[in-house]
Amino acid sequence: MLKNLKTRVASLEKSLNQATKQLKIAITQTKKRSNKYHIVGKEETLTTLSLQYFGTPKYWEAIYNANKDVIPDKRHLSPGTKLIIPAKNEDLEKGALTRYQG
Fold first, then answer.
1. Least confident of 10-19, 23-32, 65-74, 75-84
2. What CATH number has the domain bearing residue 51?
3. Predicted confidence band at 96 (pLDDT cuts at 50, 70, 90)?
4. Number of domains, the chain
5. How many whole angstroms from its chain centre is CA 39?
6. pLDDT tens digits, residue range 44-80?
7. Domain check: are 83 and 41 in the same one?
8. Contact at 8 Å (CB) between 71 and 65?
9. Rounded to an integer, what distance in angstroms lies between the CA atom of residue 10 and that of residue 5?
10. Residue range of the domain that includes 45
């Protein structure tokens, strides 16, 4: 009976180690997808922010959609406004932005 118990404990330890490794990978991937924040400076636009954070101006609307509550006019950004820069992921690519809480 003791031998069976030791075998079971060893099996559980192996499973726990595998689960721990998978969890660490998931945490790392989540951190890579996390939103960033940006404080608007003088003369910045949604297009320039998209270019700065994504290397292309095409995601300006995703930035706008993530910040509609603080951007009354998408053609003008108020300096000092804190914006969410959404994580670049599959949803952003499809244009169906998911706003992650960060």
1. 23-32
2. 3.10.350
3. very low
4. 2
5. 17
6. 999 999 999 999 999 999 999 989 999 999 999 999 9
7. yes
8. no
9. 9
10. 35-102
d(CA 99, CA 35): 8
Q: Is 46 exposed, middle or buried (0-12, 13-18, 19+ CB in 10 A)?
A: buried
**How many whole angstroms from its chain centre is CA 11?**
35
Q: What is the mean pLDDT of the chain?
A: 83
Q: Tokens 């790392």 label which residue?
A: 28
- Burial, 26: exposed, middle or buried (Cβ in 10 Å; 0-12, 13-18, 19+)? exposed
Residues 6+ apart with CB under 8 A from 47: 57, 60
- Decide: 39 and 81 in contact? Cβ < 8 Å: yes
Q: Are residues 40 and 87 in the same domain?
A: yes
User: In the numeric block, which tokens belong to residue 6?
Assistant: 């030791």
